[in-house]
Design brief:
Layout: E1 16-19, E2 25-34, E3 41-49, E4 55-61, H1 66-79, E5 88-91, H2 95-98, H3 100-109, E6 112-115, H4 125-135, H5 148-164, H6 176-180, H7 184-201, E7 219-221, E8 227-229, H8 233-240
Parallel strand pairs: 1-8, 2-5, 5-6
Antiparallel strand pairs: 1-7, 2-3, 3-4
Helix pairs in contact: 1-3
Organism: Pollutimonas subterranea
Protein name: Integrase catalytic domain-containing protein
Pfam families: rve
Length: about 240
């Protein structure tokens, strides 16, 4: 009917994925960093491992492009010794991620892409949460970064703190680096022993069970959908190709 408004289009929820270890499922996003010139920004390309929450790679540039995004993921795969058909990379639908150069890079590396729905921010919650942590750090500049070197230096220090000092609540208060290296199981088992011993010594101080220190074995992305593991990788490639 002429002039009639189209009904809203339902957005199909993206297929769920899960990871049972590091270097299986990455999340990637870009955030703006303020400069001294109003309306001009630096662009932080940041990649994290969803299982360990570790920042596995980042870079700051003055522009957004699929070529630059491809350079970062290529460097990550080399540094983390990622084999072909090992990792799924989840991101938003922005042009840097879906550009032909980036897609060609992913294909060459054997990395399967996964995408959020257009205009739906909570389809990439892990990266959004990490950016919130970054921008709420007390040392985050409230005005602007002086220059590109200053921005890179600040994010480098944030990465060091986040990966090696920050005890992440979602992974039972171990650091992302400890979990990425497979050290979390022994650390959490030791904590459980300490807590149980403390309760046995003074049971009157404990009103219920001790804190759960069991290792988080699986991390889900979009868990309300029909879930699929990141393996076999070929299944992911077929469904997102």
């Amino acid at each position: 009917m002429h002039g009639a408004q189209r009904p809203p289009q339902a957005r199909t929820r993206p297929r769920a994925l899960w990871a049972t270890g590091p270097n299986q499922l990455f999340s990637r996003d870009i955030t703006y960093l303020p400069t001294r010139i109003k309306g001009v920004y630096f662009y932080l390309y940041l990649f994290m491992d969803l299982f360990s929450r570790k920042i596995v790679g980042w870079q700051i540039y003055e522009t957004e492009s699929s070529e630059l995004a491809g350079e970062v993921i290529r460097d990550i795969c080399e540094r983390e010794n990622i084999a072909p058909h090992q990792v799924v990379l989840h991101s938003d639908n922005g042009s840097p991620m879906k550009g032909s150069t980036m897609l060609a890079t992913l294909q060459a590396l054997g990395v399967a892409p996964s995408y959020s729905r257009p205009a739906v921010s909570n389809d990439n919650p892990f990266s959004e949460s990490l950016f919130k942590t970054l921008k709420y750090r007390p040392a985050y500049p409230r005005q602007a970064f002086e220059d590109l070197a200053a921005a890179r230096a600040w994010v480098s220090e944030f990465e060091r703190w986040y990966n090696h000092e920050h005890r992440h609540s979602a992974i039972r208060f171990v650091t992302p680096s400890q979990r990425h290296a497979g050290q979390d199981g022994a650390l959490l088992a030791g904590r459980a022993v300490v807590y149980e011993a403390a309760k046995a010594r003074r049971p009157e101080r404990w009103s219920g069970t001790v804190r759960d220190w069991s290792r988080v074995a699986v991390v889900d992305l979009n868990p309300e959908s029909t879930a699929s593991p990141c393996q076999p990788h070929s299944e992911v490639v077929r469904q997102v190709a």
